[in-house]
Here is the input.
Amino acid sequence: MHSLDQEKKAAQILSKIAKTDTAIILGTGLGVIEQDISIEKSILYKDIPGFPTSSVESHQGKLIFGKLGDKTVVVMSGRFHLYEGYTPKEITFPIGVFKLMGIKNLFISNAAGGLSPDLKPGCVMLITDHINFTGQNPLVGPNNESFGPRFPDMTMPYSPVLMDKAMKVAKEEGIDLKKGVYIQVTGPSMETAAETRMLRTLGADAVGMSTVMEVIQAVHCGMNVLAISAITNNNDPDNYQPAPLEKVIAMAKVSGPLIAKIFKGVIRRM
Ligand code: HPA
Here is the structure.
């Protein structure tokens, strides 16, 4: 049985910094919401026991504690991906720590490629369901009964209550929030045209290289999850175009403020 020692140590340190029940994980190019947070304290991942450290040198991973409106939140600035070589357990370690800190609500954003023809670059998509296409799962191995059951239910991984609030906020703010199924691939190579066609046939509306590992762990821990994709490119297998990182980041910057508005509005209504 996994002893949870590291998670407990980390949670003990972090719980002393601030009490909160809401965590936010930000995707590539989607850090804009940090500007709305009045930061009370931040702590580098390297100073938290057991936390993996970010492999991207330009980005010192850190946890930020602060107020979004009048609600205290904790934000992961910098996240971990399978393509960097992290294991699913390393990627989801922070979620276990969050659980022990009393986090009940988890907000996630990511950058994704649109597979549905409706999903144009710059638009935002509420993730209503997902497909784990990585062949990996963070819950493999001895089950941590204190987190959740051996075979966690996945009939509703994304909170209907939070999704409903997100749709309402989007409507009020005049944001055309689409809905769809997200598929996580491992990466780092982008999909071929044939793979793109396959992923669409499998029932996915958008494809990306993050999120599903964290969501599986969060659902196991009984958290309410809300996740939104910034659609940075559209992958049409019959007219397939490269989606270089610069384009992905540039387009994420277009959608970032929309996702920030929705997260803020939902948090205000919680
Ligand atoms: N494929 C995979 N991941 C992505 C994409 C994509 O087209 N766009 C942004 N992240």
Summary: The chain has a mean pLDDT of 94. The CA atoms of residues 148 and 220 lie 5 Å apart. The first strand starts at residue 22 and ends at 25.
